[in-house]
Write a structure and sequence with these properties.
mainly alpha
Length: 238
């Protein structure tokens, strides 16, 4: 099916949801499940509605910033949804040249809007094309890649954390093993004890010698006293 027809079917879905105040994706799900009397929605119509819904904040902001006099909430419902479809193709769909997106929007406006809307839509979309690099948006593939990258980063961080924990545990075990090993003997450490023992033996020998000398001196004094007593007795007898 031609993309022009798909754009018209997408516009019908967006217009109906906007008029009802219903979520775009909610009504899209209903139309996919129950197309009613109409033929099933073309794949490109579904892609447009999903793309507009997913990037609605960015699309509406871009349209507001390039609209002269009328903000998107004050535009006619059909006009703002024609603009949303064209803005999505300009900002998000590289397969559609900017000029084609503008021409298709004007084609829808000629059928569904008044003459004043044609010049307004043309001027707004032309200005948006000139500044579209200021409005980076993500499509579903980009979001999936970003999610995969985020999961990969989390896995990497978990692995690094586990590696760091294992390293800390290994270091702790090594430290514990080192702390249980007996300290190497150092000959120099035993020298003060040996010197103290030698000094104690020397002091003991000196004490024993001093005691022996005192005993010898006492014996000598006793001998002298005994001699003197004997001499006194002798003199008395004479």
């Amino acid at each position: 099916m031609a993309r022009s027809t798909a754009r018209k079917r997408a516009l019908n879905t967006l217009y109906e949801a906007d008029e009802k105040g219903q979520d775009f994706l909610s009504l899209l799900a209903e139309r996919i499940a129950q197309p009613g009397a109409q033929t099933p929605l073309p794949d490109y119509a579904i892609e447009i509605v999903r793309g507009v819904a997913d990037n609605r904040v960015t699309i509406d902001r871009a349209l507001d910033e390039h609209s002269t006099g009328w903000k998107i909430r004050r535009m006619a419902v059909v006009d703002r949804n024609i603009l949303r479809i064209a803005a999505w193709e300009i900002l998000c769909n590289d397969e559609v040249p900017d000029k084609v997106a503008i021409d298709e929007a004007l084609s829808l406006a000629r059928t569904l809007s008044d003459d004043d809307s044609l010049s307004f839509i043309h001027g707004l979309l032309s200005a948006l094309c000139a500044d579209k690099e200021q409005y980076p948006v993500r499509n579903e593939d980009d979001e999936a890649e970003a999610a995969d990258a985020s999961e990969g980063d989390e896995s990497s961080e978990t692995a690094v954390s586990a590696e760091a924990t294992g390293s800390d545990a290994a270091t702790g075990s090594s430290d514990a093993a080192e702390s249980t090993e007996p300290a190497p003997s150092n000959p120099a450490d035993s020298q003060p004890d040996q010197q103290a023992s030698d000094h104690q033996n020397t002091d003991q020998q000196a004490s024993e010698q001093e005691t022996a000398a005192q005993e010898t001196s006492t014996q000598s004094q006793d001998a002298i006293s005994s001699s003197q007593m004997d001499s006194g007795v002798s003199n008395t007898t004479e």
